[in-house]
Structure formats: C-alpha cells, structure tokens
Amino acid sequence: MSAPTLESLMMRFAFRSRSPFGVVGFLVVMELGSGMLQGWFSPLLAAIGQQFSVSAGSLNWVNAMYMLVTVACVPILAKLGDMFGHKRLLVAAAALVAVGSLVVAFAPTFELFLLGRALQAPLAAFLPLEFAIVRSRDPKSASRNIGVLVGALTLGAAVGSLASGLLYASTQNLNVVLLFPAIFIALCVPVVIFLVPETTVRKKGRIDWAGAILLTAGLLATLTGISNGGAWGWLEARTLSLVLGGVAVLTLWVFVERRVENPLVDLSMLAKSGIGLPIVVSALFGAQTYGGQTASFLWLLSDPTREGYGLGLPPAGAGAIIVLYAIAAFAGTLLGERLARWVTPPRAVALAGVVAGASFALMIIFSGSTAMFIAWMALGGLSAGVLLAVLPSIVVRNAPADSVGIASALFNTARTAAGAVAGAVFALVMSLFVTTRSVEGSTAVSSTPLSFFAVWGICLAISLALSALALRMRVAREPDTDETSTVESPTAEPIEER
Asked: How many whole angstroms separate alpha carbon 300 and alpha carbon 321?
C-alpha cells in the first residue's frame, strides 16, 4: 500500500473539519489549552512578585487586569463575530492571546507584564465564538457539544494550576514556565485557520462604535471602583467617582442602544427571545460561585490554633482540593446535558441551584470536619459544572441565528462581572465580623467564624433565588431535523460557505 500523499492528507483533514465531530474535537483541544492558561498564573504569583520586586497588593493586578479587560472586550469581539464571521474573530482573538502570552513570558518590567495580561483577555471570547460555530455546524447536538467544551475548559483550568506549579518547582525559571502557554496558543492559530469552518449567517448593519465605547468605559469604571473599594476605602473620592461615573455611563449606554438602528446589544432581543432571564441566572451563579470561593479556600488554609478558625491545611493540600473541585465541576459538565434531557433544562438548573445551596448549608454545619467540609465543597463543584453546561446551552438555543455570539458573550460577561462584584461585597461583609486577638504578645485584628458563615449564608440565599428564577425560564424547542447554517432570519444575511 502506497504512503498517503500530502494532498490526500489535506483532503482528509478538510473532510474532518467539515464534520461536526472534527470541528468539536479541534475546539475541545483549544478550550483545554484556554483553561490551562486561565489556571496557569495563580501558583506563580509569588514568583512573579519576586521577579518584578512588587508587593502582594500589586500582585492583585495580575488577575484583575485580565478580568477587567475581559469584561470589556468579550461582548465586542462576539458581536464582530456575528457580523463578520465567528471563525475569523476566533483567529483574531487567538492571535492576540498568543502575542499577549509572549509579552508576559519576556516582559522586562511589571508594567509590560500587565500589558501582556490585558492582551490575553480575548481568551474569554473563545467560548462565545465556539458556541456559535458548533450551533451552526450541528444544531441538534449543540447542547451536548457545549457541555463538552465547557468541561474541557474546566478540566484545563485544574491541569494548568497543577502543571504550572510543578513546572516551576522543577525549573525555577519563570520565563520558561510562562512560555509554555504562549507556544500552545500560537499553535492554535493555524489550526483554526485551516481546520475549523466558518459560520455562514451574518448580522446585518454597521458597527455600533458609540455603544461599544460606552459599554467598555462603563464596565471598566464600575468594576475597577468596586474591585478596589476595600483597599481604597468605599467612601473615598476615587472609589465613588469610578462607581457612580461608571453607572452613569452604563445608563447612557442603555439610552443610546434603544435608539440606534443596529445596536451593539439589542436590548429588546433579551426579553423577546428568552435570553434575558438565563443571563440574570448566570449573574447569580457567578456571584455565589466565584464570590464564595475565596472564603472557602481561606477556611481550608487558616490555622485554627492561630486564627481561631479554619482547618489548617498546608498549601499543597489546598491545591489538591482545588483540583478535586475542578474535577467535580468537570463531572458536572458531563452530567448536565443528560440531566437537562431527563428533567428539562430549567429544572436541571433549578436542581443544581438547590444542590449548591445545600452544599453551602452543609459547609456551615460541618465546618469543623476536614473530610466533610471537602466533600460538601466537591458537591458544590458538581452543581457548578451542571450550571456551566446547561445555562449556556439554553442561551444558545434561544438566541436568533445571527446573534449567538453576542448572546453567549453577555452570558459570560454577566457571570464574570457578578463574580467580581460579589468578591468585593463579600470582602466588605467579612470585615464587619472581626475580633481583636493577642498573637505572640501583639494585638491583631482578625476575622471570626461568623464572617465566613455570613458569606456562605448569602451564597445559600443566592442559590435558592437562582433555582426559583430558573423555573421561569423558557427554552426554544430543539430542532427535529438538522438546520442548515444558511437559514434566513429577518435580520440575518446568509453567505456562501468558503
């Protein structure tokens, strides 16, 4: 038998790239790498501080810079995908992330390092653009494929956190460790160019630059003020100026979006297509999941003999539990689509919310038992995985064919923004329950167990509210036959597949 020629290999790849399985396979690998990059930095924060000689407070900007720019850029990139092609914007986003990763790896100063982190923010646009691609290629299996993509992202984050720490421990070279994700993302660019097909439905109209600028400025100002309120002081002039100014700009943005012919975000679409309520539920999910994680992991690490609370686990043990939580979430993403088919998607979301609430309640009750506390944390991770899989599939199914990208981006942005706000609010809540203790002859102010219970109690209430709202969500009927990617809608423009 003769060896396959280059032409036959390219034809084979082309055939696979046009099958739903091949497309999803390439995107799953990409999301696995995306998750690894998102989890790559936390174990390296101390080393980053040493290399650039910056304080612990300044290190907060390593993740804050990424999160802030993420909230601002993801809706814009997703909207451009709806207008000009989701593959095209996925290539652009991957190229920007690759450049940012190289800047991060070789940055000579902390300021350039933060610039690289900002350039990595389009990483969060991968999922919304991929959701549009998988729905376009195979609408009937879109829900299952979305669960697989989210599962790959979740698993990748756990692998990244573990791998970067182990790699740095073996090499003691921060530049080498930071170069690994840069190489991976750079390799993703040609893979997407040659092996992922373009979607064929376009949103008509012009780019709403006014809406994009107002939304970006409003979100950045509001979240910057809220994120730094604890450090700057909530009544400080710069905190109030940023928060109130950001809210004013967002109010102006709503006014503008209601009056332009082709808005960045069609606000009427959120209500009419059934996307608005899932996005609200997503925000509640982000608040209880990301807002409560800091308190949970701080409880694991705190020494009860010194702090008066906590379980006293070493950092390595806490890191292993982070991996366990991520594995539980990964299992939840695999379970989510099946659960949704069994009991309907709204009921699956409601059930996951009740389980999340139960996990917070049991963490309060069994806060003194290491094994039980970890078990209930893992239960919370399982429920988070179900929510991560089912909620975006509802948004994708409900979204008009020409607006899948922006709808998915709003879902992700709402979850991220709510998590950032909840983290700041929970820090304020914990500061209300403090006590003065004597530590080695000196007086120190520290939190009390009641501060942690208050945070978990709020998360419990948010979870139950999430469940109640979930039962009111409506879900578009799943297609009985394969849709073609060139089906016209009143505002969509099909184009020839290239």
From this structure: 9
Burial bucket for residue 191 (CB in 10 Å: 0-12, 13-18, 19+): middle
CB 421 within 8 A of CB 223: yes
Q: Please check whether residue 446 is in contact with residue 414, taking contact to mean a CB–CB distance below 8 angstroms.
A: no
Per DSSP, the residues of 115-174 read HHHHHTGGGGGHHHHHHHHHHHH-GGGHHHHHHHHHHHHHHHHHHHHHHHHHHHHHH--H
Task: Tell me how far apart the alpha carbons of residues 193 and 205 are, in angstroms, rounded to a whole number.
Answer: 26
State how far the Cα of 37 lies from the Cα of 54, in Å rounded to an integer.
22
3-class state of residue 219 by DSSP = helix
d(CA 235, CA 247): 16
Looking from the CA of 358 toward its CB, the CA atoms found within 13 Å total 12
Query: Are 309 and 454 within 8 A, CB to CB?
Result: no
Higher model confidence: residue 20 or residue 157? 157
- Of 115, 86, 62, 102, nearest in space to 409 by CA: 86
Which residue is associated with the tokens 């109010």? Answer: 251
Please tell me the predicted confidence (pLDDT) of residue 489: 42
Give me the long-range contacts of 205-208 (CB less than 8 A, separation at least 24): 205/83, 205/261, 205/262, 206/262, 207/79, 207/80, 207/83, 208/79, 208/257, 208/260, 208/262, 208/263, 208/264
Single out the residue of 100, 82, 93 nearest to residue 124, CA to CA: 93
Give the C-alpha separation, 276 to 283, whole Å: 11
What kind and span of H or E run contains 234?
Answer: none
Q: Give the Cα separation of 84 and 78 in Å (integer).
A: 10
pLDDT per position as a tens digit, 68-90: 889 889 999 999 999 999 999 99
* H or E element that contains 95: helix 86-106
Is the distance from CB of 390 to CB of 261 less than 8 angstroms?
no
In 186-253 the beta strands, taken as DSSP E runs, fall at 201-203
Cα-atom radius of gyration of the chain, to the nearest Å? Answer: 23
The whole-angstrom distance between residue 387's C-alpha and the CA centroid of its chain comes to 12
Three-state secondary structure readout of 41-72: CHHHHHHHHHHHCCCHHHHHHHHHHHHHHHHH
Please list the residues that pair with 494 across neighbouring strands: 201
Residue 315 CB coordination number (10 Å): 11
Half-sphere exposure of residue 404: CA atoms within 13 angstroms, side-chain side? 32
What is d(CA 359, CA 325) in angstroms, rounded to the nearest whole number?
A: 13
First to last CA, the chain: 33
**What stretch of H or E contains 322?**
helix 315-343
**Phi, psi of 303, rounded to the nearest 5 degrees:** -90, 115
CA-CA distance, 309 to 312, in Å (whole number)? 9
Model confidence at 452: pLDDT above 60: yes
pLDDT digits (tens, 9 = 90+) for 238-276: 999 999 999 999 999 999 998 888 888 888 888 777 889
Tell me the whole-structure pTM to 2 decimals.
0.83
